[in-house]
C-alpha cells in the first residue's frame, strides 16, 4: 500500500496547514467522504499515488468549502478526477 490512512491524514493536514490533532476525526470523515464522492463519479478506489492525492485534494476542498459555501469546484481537481477516470476506463 502506497499510503495508509495516517499518511493521507498527514498530507491533508499539511495541505490545510493544520498542526494540531483537534480536527483529525473530522478530517478522517472528509477523507472517507471524498472516496464516496469519487465513487459516485465512477472512479474505482485504487492504490496509486494519483488516486490518493486526488482523495486528499478532494477532502481539502470539502474542508475549505465549509468556510465558503459558494466556492466553485476547483478546475485542477476536476481535471485530476477526469484523468483518473479516463485512465481507469482505458485499462
Explain how this protein is built.
- The protein is built from four helices and no strands.
- It is mostly helical and 91 residues long.
- Helix 3 (49-65) packs antiparallel against helix 4 (75-90).
- The chain starts with a helix and ends with a helix.
List keywords for this structure.
single chain; 91 residues; mainly alpha; 68% helix; 0% strand; globular
Tell me the structural class. Answer: mainly alpha
Percent helix: 55-70%
The average pLDDT value, as a whole number, equals 95
Count of separate DSSP helical elements: 4
What is the multimeric organization of the chains shown? single chain
Instruction: Report the biggest beta sheet as strand number plus sense, adding barrel if it closes.
Output: none
Q: Segments where pLDDT lies below 50 for 5+ residues?
A: none
- Number of DSSP strand runs: 0
Overall geometric form: globular
Secondary-structure element series: HHHH
Beta-sheet strand percentage?
Answer: under 5%
Query: What would you report as the Rg, rounded to the nearest angstrom?
Result: 13 Å
Cα(first) to Cα(last) distance is 20 Å
List the helices and strands and how they pair.
Layout: H1 5-16, H2 24-40, H3 49-65, H4 75-90
Helix pairs in contact: 1-2, 1-3, 2-3, 3-4
Amino acid at each position: 500500500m502506497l499510503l495508509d490512512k495516517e499518511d493521507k491524514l498527514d498530507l491533508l493536514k499539511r495541505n490545510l496547514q493544520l498542526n494540531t490533532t483537534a480536527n483529525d476525526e473530522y478530517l478522517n470523515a472528509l477523507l472517507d467522504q471524498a472516496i464516496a464522492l469519487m465513487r459516485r463519479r465512477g472512479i474505482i478506489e485504487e492504490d496509486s499515488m494519483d488516486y490518493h492525492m486526488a482523495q486528499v485534494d478532494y477532502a481539502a476542498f470539502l474542508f475549505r468549502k465549509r468556510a465558503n459555501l459558494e466556492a466553485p469546484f476547483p478546475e485542477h481537481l476536476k481535471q485530476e478526477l477526469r484523468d483518473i477516470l479516463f485512465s481507469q476506463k482505458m485499462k
